[in-house]
Design goal:
252 residues; alpha/beta; 7-stranded parallel sheet; 3-stranded antiparallel sheet
């Protein structure tokens, strides 16, 4: 196994279990404990882990962005439920702005099976997903590639987005807070999502419950700009009241 693949798997285990033990990882992957320690050192440098005696704990920094391969495996069942809800809100022939999140990618896969749509996206993964789609059209934003997220960002991407008017923008986020609003880990991603929201008639925020009560580095928008929130289970009473006060529809 390549080192990058092993580190991504260790990161997935860290996120799921909140901690890993060097000796166990060494046996699991058939490498030396020193190799695992180097893997953990690299993950710590990237802001995803904090080394402890004999292992490490998960500690994602506000500015760090999980690799796409890791995000695709995280809360996959919850994202699948959200994708089914999103498909119910999209009609044949609609134009959609869709970001580079793993949740949006799963929604895109679901829509391909059931809807004929036009998608404007900065997601390289989404472009590949629709490369041979016959009934739908996909438009790339262009821009500079962000390797970790397989996304296209920058001024060129934002300019292309603003050339179009879409029925809906379907976006995700890194954090959702009643006090701080909707937040992202990277400024470049946030600017693309802002352009998508500005160019759409309706904003749909797709966020599983693990994003609730979390705050990330960059403020994306307040809840007043969001029309509908899609999540995987019923929010608690405080969130339900908050959504009602801000006239936000919630589906789960």
């Amino acid at each position: 196994m390549l080192a990058i693949a092993r580190r991504n798997e260790i990161l997935t285990l860290l996120q799921t279990n909140q901690s890993v033990i060097v000796s166990e990882m060494s046996r699991l992957y058939g490498v030396t404990e020193e190799t695992i320690r180097r893997d953990l050192e690299e993950l710590e440098k990237r802001g995803f882990a904090k080394k402890t005696y004999g292992g490490a704990v998960y500690a994602q920094a506000m500015v760090s962005d999980l690799p796409m391969r890791v995000r695709e495996k995280t809360n996959a069942e919850a994202k699948s439920r959200i994708a089914e809800l999103a498909a119910e809100l999209v009609a044949d022939g609609e134009a959609l702005m869709m970001d580079s999140s793993s949740t949006a990618l799963m929604i895109g896969r679901r829509l391909r099976q059931t809807r004929r749509v036009t998608i404007i996206t900065n997601s390289v993964e989404m472009l590949m997903e629709y490369a041979d789609a016959r009934d739908s059209r996909i438009i790339s934003t262009g821009g500079c590639l962000r390797e970790a997220s397989y996304s296209l960002c920058g001024a060129d991407a934002e300019a292309l987005i603003r050339r179009y008017n879409a029925d809906k923008a379907i976006i995700s986020c890194k954090g959702l807070s009643r006090e701080r609003g909707v937040t992202e880990s990277a400024q470049a991603e946030a600017e693309v999502k802002k352009a998508m929201m500005d160019s759409a008639g309706e904003v749909i925020l797709a966020a599983d419950l693990s994003k609730f009560d979390k705050v990330s580095f960059v403020r994306l928008t307040d809840m007043a700009r969001v029309g509908t929130v899609l999540t995987n289970a019923a929010p608690d009473e405080a969130w339900t009241e908050f959504f009602e006060q801000n006239d936000v529809k919630v589906r789960y």
